[in-house]
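Batch manifest line 232
LIGAND: flavin-adenine dinucleotide
JOB: complex structure
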Amino acid sequence: MQQHARLVIIGAGIVGCSAAYHFAKLGWRDVVVLEKGELLEVDGSSSHAPGGMFLTNSSKMMAEFAKYSRAFYDEFNTDPAEPALFGTGGLEVAYTPERLRDLQRRKGWAHAYGLPAEVISPAETTRLIPLIDPKIIHGALYTPRDAVAKAVRLLTRLTRAAEAMGVVFHGHTTVTDLDVQNGRIAAVVTDQGRIEAEQVLLCTNIWGPLLPEKIGFRIPLQAAQHLYTVTT
Ligand SMILES: Cc1cc2nc3c(=O)[nH]c(=O)nc-3n(C[C@H](O)[C@H](O)[C@H](O)COP(=O)(O)OP(=O)(O)OC[C@H]3O[C@@H](n4cnc5c(N)ncnc54)[C@H](O)[C@@H]3O)c2cc1C
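JOB STATUS: finished
ARTIFACT:
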């Protein structure tokens, strides 16, 4: 493993891989990504999430991120045999009149941020998803740009594209400490050796607070379990 890098990215989930790709695209060289688990099918959330992409958000910045990601992932959706993105559209269903009012508000956010969205009737909702009983719902917000991303396929394509621009990825490499000198991180310490780094980017998601804690920096982040149901 090299002993110096301009940029060390810790964590090869979708955020670390995307950051590596974008830095390389901006012309950064000498970029290294370190991942404690397997590459591609990483230890973190990215390889476990079903990949629902709901673009509507109260925050304009988050909606812009989501719009960008939707278009960006489309660029990597090049193999019809192994799609990386399904343009399914999204539905948020209202079981109460209050929820329907909230969905009207969400429609307003979507339109304000340039996203197509409409509130549809119970019958129209059931036409889109026959599993839903129209008698027990009040309507739904239909957002046709929403999608489902296949994260491992995207991770694979992003990683390969970043590698083609010179980014180096190391799996099974745990960053165990950050070496601080003169008030800034000078190196990352790993179970495979030490890398001096001009810049370090932490993309460790739920593990986010652990390394900063070692250098006296608190990230107020609490990991929580997340359940989901898959229907066939
Ligand atoms: C069950 C579930 C369902 C979800 N569903 C959705 C959904 O439908 N839509 C949606 O948008 N989001 C969903 N999410 C959230 C989404 O998956 C995450 O926000 C996203 O994957 C986070 O990406 P990341 O790259 O930040 O983190 P991760 O994918 O968690 O990657 C972080 C990586 O850092 C590595 N790492 C940590 N510490 C170290 C260290 N010290 N040294 C080296 N490597 C380290 C980890 O091994 C890990 O691979 C879901 C999450 C879960 C768990």
